[in-house]
Every structure is written in C-alpha cells, then in structure tokens.
Amino acid sequence: MRTFREHCIRQTEWLDGPWNFVKDPGDTGIRDRWFERFPQDSRALYVPSCWNNELSLYDYEGIAWYRKIIRTPDTRHIRLIFHAVLGHADVYLDGRHLGYHYGGYTPFDFIVPSLAEGEHELIVRTDSRLDRLTIPTEHVDWFHYGGIIRLVELQRLPDLHIQRVDIGYELEGADADVTIKVQLRSLSQERVATTLTLSEGGAVFHTGTVSVESGETFDYEVKQRWPDVRLWNVGRPELYEIKARTDFDDRTERIGFRRIETKNHRVLINGSPVYLKGVNRHEEHPEWGFAFPPKLMGKDLDIIRELGCNAVRGSHYPQSPYWLDLLDEQGLVFWSEIPMWGAALPNDTVKEPLFRERALTMIEEMVNLHIHHPSVIFWSVHNEIDSRTQDAYEMTEQLVALVRRLDSSRLVTYATMHPLEDVLLPLFDAIGINKYYGWYEGETAGFGEMLRQFHERAEAMGAGDRPVLMTEFGGAGIYGDTGWEPRLFSEDYQAGIVSEALSIFRDDPKIGGTFVWQFADVRADLHSNGSHFRDRARSFNNKGLVNEYRKPKQAYREVRSLYQSWRD
Ligand code: ADA
Known about the structure:
Belongs to the glycosyl hydrolase 2 family. By secondary structure, this protein is an alpha/beta fold. It has 7 helices and 30 strands.
C-alpha cells in the first residue's frame, strides 16, 4: 500500500491471497444470512482483485460474499483495515456485524478489542450494483467492477495505540511552522502512561510523556518552527518522514513542504508558475480491473514521465496511496477527485439527501487518505455534472465548503462539460473544461471559438482570473490501426485531434495546463443488460495514448514531442 513502512513496532499482517468467494444472485431465499453459514460450494478468489476479471464472472454485477479465516496467537485488540472495497460492504466477524461502508476507493476500519486467541471467521458481503443514488450512478463510462480491490490489513494493537497522526504547516519563506497532532486511544481498563517521541529522518525533535485514562482518546499536539526547510518542487521533490513513537506503538507519515497559489491564470508552486502537462489516468488494467498491482504503477509512471508530463489527473476516483507515493517521490502533481461522474446525471439526483451525504463522506475520506501527499494539489468535487442549474450550485457549494474546511492549502476544482452555460465558475480556484471538438462535436479548430466565448463569460461572472485547465479532450484510436489517411478510429485520426488541440491550448495564455483524455485504454460499460456507450469499439474506451497493455500509439509519440518541447 505504501513505498515506505508506516509501522515498525505495530504488528501488521496482509490478508491477501485466496479467500472463499461466492456470488449471491438473490434467488436462493437465504440471501443476507450467509454470514451465519457460508455456502459450501464457494470458490477461491484472490484478494485484492475484481471478480469481473475471472471466467464466468465477466459481467456479474450484484452481491458477492467473501470469507477468510484469521488466526490470533493470543488475546489481542485487533484493527481490520479494508483499504478499498467497491460499492456496499458489510463486514462480519464470527457472525457479528462489525459495520457497513459505502464507497469504493477509500479505506475503512474496525477495531475489535480483546479478540480471543484462536481462529476467527471474517466474512464480507459486497454489493457492486449501481443505481441513481450511488456514486457513480448506473450511467458511467467505466466498467462496473466489483470486489475487494485493495489490500485488507490486520493489525494487532497495544492497549494504548496511536489512532492517527496529522501534520500541518504554514510556510513563511522557507521557514515552516509545523503542527503535529498525535491522537492516542486507550483500550485499557487502567490509566496508561508512556513517553512519546517525534522524529524526522531518524533524528528526534520532541520527547514528552503522556498518560491516558481508561477508554479515553487523547490529542497530543506539538508546534515547532523549522527554519529553512527543503521545498518540494515539481521535478525536484523533497520529502520528510515524520515518525511518532510511544513505548508500545509507532506510526510514520511522510510530507513535503510547498505552497500552492494561482496568479495570472497559472498554478504557482512555491511562487513559480508551473504549466501543467498532464494525462487522465484510470487506475485500471484488463487483467486486474481496479486492483491495479503496485509493480505496474511504477511502469505507468515511467511511461507518463517519458511522455514529458508533470501532472496526472486521477480520473475519476481516489487512487492508491502507493501510486501517490510514487508521484511524491518523482515530483509530479496530482488531481484527486471523487467518483461523481455526471454526463447524464439526472438533475433531481443532486437534490437527494442520500446522494449528497454519500458525496460529502467521499470527500472527507478522500481528503483523509491523501492529505499528506505533497503531489496532491487539487481536490475535485465532480466531473461533468449538469452544471447549469441552481440545484447543482447548491450541492456544489456544500461540497466546496467541506473541502475548504478540511484543507485550505490546496486548490478546489471540478471539470465542466458545459463551459458556456456553467453557473458554478465563481465557486472554484481553478476551472477544468472537458470538450471533445474533433470527436463528439465539430472540427478540432472549434476549441478556439469556444475558449474565446468562455473567457468572456468567466470574466463577466467574476471568475476571469482563474487558471483554466483543459481537463479532457481527445478521440479514439484503435491500437495498430494506421493507414494512408486518417480514418475515424485510426491511430492517425486520434493523433491529429490531440496534437491540434494541444497547439490551440498552448497559444491561449489563460490556459494553465492540459490533461489529455486519456493515458491508457480502459474497459467500458457495455454489459449485455445495458445499451450505453455503443460507440466503444472492442468494449473499450479507446482514447488512450497507450492501449490497455501500455503499448504506445501514434498519439503518444506526438504528445511526447510536444510536451517534451514545452517550457514553463
Ligand atoms: C467524458 C468523461 C470521461 C469519458 C470521456 C469520453 O468527458 O469525463 O470519463 O467518458 O468523456 O471518452 O467520452
């Protein structure tokens, strides 16, 4: 899950490998009781994975149950972390319901105090079905995978454990006012005392003592001025590993110091404008679905760096912490967003309390997951919803207010498909535009006139000073299909659209960056029971610069020659 060790003292174990798995189409009459008696006829399924990558489960959307026996060598408090389960998840331990989570790309956890020595049965019921109130809704342009897509972790906790470590800072020049909050939680029957040390890169910078009453949670806060810190910059990253350690437990977090602002339509990092050269990346692979293996993340990053990129948009959901660790280490910036994907989101959906509540929870979980990564500079609240209405405005106001309350150091943004009618522009620090001239509408040259009108409108709405980011544009090209003429769906046609669009954007001083749609081809939602996206040849969204196995198309080569030649 990470490129560095989060714990050295705390005992952790990955529950990866085969789990018992059974799908539950709901016609057995005993549905929802399988946590009491798991069916005998289950098969083995590797965790983490998506079941839709297995034979006979290709287009199964629905309920599925997982089971794993865990062993505890002695009576201990345990913490179970599910790093990501798609859709609805109910977790049971020895027949007892530990809790429910809705989401897909963020972790949730359960603490079980004093779990007795021996074997225990862990059962997870998942439901991957999408509907009008799920996020995303049932109409979405990616494959409706299901499963436990990131690792499950079993931690053994001491009586007094470190619940969380939050690190914040304010920069004044190169000096940082750092605040470190360590939250300690007691599961003991008695008061427990401990020393607490904080270190950075192995050197202790604070030692204290603390005692926590039985069953209490205690917030320990340290503020310090660190002079002359090494700043994290694009292409020149600098990272700080900060470790909290008690007599019984430890936790390491990693941060980078940088200041993010906007000025003259540009994003500034540490006062210097950075023109964002990016791609949209789904964390998806034809053999692994959303359970993307870390080894391949390294390769994705190599291919993206070779392209000349300094930025990645995590379309369309919070991506793995391992991936963000790699971006932190290589000095690329990241756009993180929740999976609210709207192209045809019915407008009344955005008014629904359950839909909004889910969106707010997803935002909170995303910020929590990614807060310490210096690569993350954007929080995005939605993609292509109907941004022309008052209802959208009200919901967006709520989402933006929450993001700003949780983190005021980054830019809040979104991607609009209605740039000339959008009412949300003034709510954001940067505006993302998704448009497909040359593909879904008109000639590629149409971008020029659209942008002229957009800038006028943004000015009139009081949002004329924001960086405009071209967050999606492109066209489909089937890998290997080339010819003498640029036919629709050929590599040549796609390359033509993308390079012409990039040249138009680069000449527009109000545009602060470009994110090609998309990095790699991804499986599309073309189920037998649905008729959306019938233009997705091969059942893939073929707008990747590389195909689904990361082989480069003509468009990759052309974007590389442009991106590598662009200077800030
Ligand atoms: C949209 C959407 C993407 C993808 C793209 C396309 O803009 O945000 O997820 O569906 O269109 O390929 O049409």
